Amino acid sequence: MNKNKHHNKKRPAVSYKEYVLSLLAMALIAGGGVYAINRDRQQPIVEYLASYPDFADLEKVTKTYQEIKDNYVGEIDQDNLIDGAVSGLTQALDDPFSGYFTGQNADDLDDSISGSFQGIGAVMTIKDKQVTIAEEPMKDSAAQKAGLKAGDVITAVDGEEVTDKELTEVVQSIRGEENTEVTLTINRDNETFDVTLTRSAIEIDTVKGELVPSDKKIGHVTINSFSSHTADEFKKVVEDLRKDGAKGFMFDVRQNPGGLLDQVAIMSSMFLEDGETIVKFEDKTKKKNQIIAGKDLDDGFKIFEPAVVLMDSKSASASEIFAAALNQSADIPLVGETTFGKGTVQTVAPISKESDLKLTTSKWLTPKDEWIHEKGIKPTAEIDFKEYDDLKIISTEQTYQLGMSGSSLQNINHLLALLGYNVTADDEQFTEATAAAVRELQTTQGLPVTGIIDKETALKIQQLIAEKIISDNRVVDKGIELISSKLAQ
């Protein structure tokens, strides 16, 4: 998306109070002006900043800017120059969670905060080197209204071929301003036709719920992120599951990278007695404050049924606030792996109509005053997935056959052993047993039976491993066991 489009882009459909929040653990920004240095406003800003003790250091930046502007022999893009300077300031912090965002990156940050984006409502993937609609379009979206289907191949966007483009580039060309049009060239069953769609705002569902098939008294609630409408979704999902007969719940934050503090605070309050601590904060001056449960957050909606939290090593920040609050203030068990360990707070502030600053401003502590940064939260019931820890992608740049050896062959034997084949998992040799396992796999998967791992066989092994990991239900099974035992009491 070009700069002009971004300049005209509306901010997310949330209040400014909601918007100026942290992406991970939100803190409200109070007061303070934000200025964009441009030619017309540079001198007043310099005069304003001169009143600060550290201005002499900052003056180096303004002098360098002026020197480049006056004397650099090449062409100068003033916006790029200023953006580069601001970006350099954040990079100098050496903080992976702070950053300066412009253009498409700022748009994406806005979308992640609001939990919505502007587009056609279709999920795309690359299949057989073609941009393909991966699943049925979202309900009431432009893609659904236009009759697009899962499996449709997109060959062009607004008349421009997309065959050799990266998926992200194609997605960005399809997304755009609400109420604008985009024309897709579609190939379906060897027939090609054009479809013109009007882009609209797409709300992303962040919470899903279902009754456990093996025990209809248990509801499984998956929270994918904490966006601006997650708490409302969460309440509705719980209410619906209660109506369907749920007497206990598993709350699943596996793979959840975090989100907005106001949302996780509301949701955590639902599980706690009023007055109990949800989360604490400490700023650079060591000043502390906290958020406590109460009707002002949860509006009196409480969840006191037996519950567990399912988590893994990708559960981060807001997910960790949720897990810690429920465990330490409501004694709810945690099942799975130790979490990611992100204990800092970022605030997000619009620097201009085209840019955002995400800055670490404090750290958060659990109700028991623990700082979990780079340590994570340990589960009360740990499920060990160490057999997957050292798995590596099989290189498709070469073939593997009998007589070869090395660490790549040890990885291959490990993968085959995980799939149930009779090989020695830590063997660094491509042995007769390895070849026999490969032939058996090729036979069952309908591949040419050679006993040699070529690109097609390597990709199939990796697909089968991915399916095995996804279908590994030990965490869910343990959650069901814990809730069932409570319901039986």
TrEMBL record:
The record places domain PDZ at 106-175
UniProt keyword list? Hydrolase, Protease, Serine protease
Judging by the UniProt lineage, the source's domain of life is Bacteria
GO biological process, any = signal transduction
The record's GO CC annotations read:
outer membrane-bounded periplasmic space
Presence of the UniProt keyword Transport in the record: no
- Please name the SUPFAM superfamilies in this protein's record: ClpP/crotonase, PDZ domain-like, PGBD-like
Q: Which GO molecular function annotation, any one, does this entry have? A: serine-type peptidase activity
Q: Which ranges does the record mark as transmembrane?
A: none
Name the protein family. Answer: Belongs to the peptidase S41A family.
Q: Spell out the protein name for this chain.
A: S41 family peptidase
What organism is the protein native to? Answer: Vagococcus coleopterorum
